[in-house]
Amino acid sequence: DLFCEKIGEVTLESHRDIPELARMVVERCRGSPLAVSAIGVTMAGKNLVQEWRDAIDALAKFSGMEDENEILPVLKFSYDNLKDERLKQCFQYCALFQEDQVIFKDDLVEYWIDEGIVDGKEDRYRAEEECYGIISYLVHACLLVENNFGLIVTMPSLVRETALWVASNLGEEKEHFFVKPQSKTW
């Protein structure tokens, strides 16, 4: 199945308890292929039972959310497990685009460098390469989708909703300003 494909047999077979724990993680995905893929990539290589229990505990903190929001914690878990703050900033930046908007990779690279998220002052070429690496990482993590022969990416609507949810402190800070367009066209 999709989850097993994402985490790999080595991870699944690394401890006798992991298949049952993996089943519990997949249940939290509520049948969403996007959530299954994202958490599968996140859990790939996690061979310790405690890592799986920690994941289940992190996901359980949000049980009881409204049905349409139930997979947001799964996607947030993938966000939380991004390897550094720069990746998280670049991910959050993508949420500034409209839902399912086509984003040219070259433009995204320029934006990240021009905004100072990725430092391009000393070596612009290396900064651009770093940006393309970040895009690839976010695609591999199932947080962006690559299209059109690899020239563009989109942020799936549920992933974008998760990014906005994280930006609003999990929905607690509704009075703070963040960009959230109300219409499809600006």
TrEMBL record:
Q: Which residues form the signal peptide?
A: none
Q: Which keywords has UniProt assigned to this entry?
A: Plant defense, Repeat
Q: Which domain of life is it from?
A: Eukaryota
State the Gene Ontology BP annotations.
defense response to other organism
Gene Ontology terms, MF aspect: ADP binding
* Membrane spanning stretches: none
Keyword NAD recorded: no
Which PANTHER family does this UniProt record tie to the protein?
DISEASE RESISTANCE PROTEIN RFL1-RELATED, DISEASE RESISTANCE PROTEIN RP
What protein is this chain from?
Answer: Putative disease resistance protein
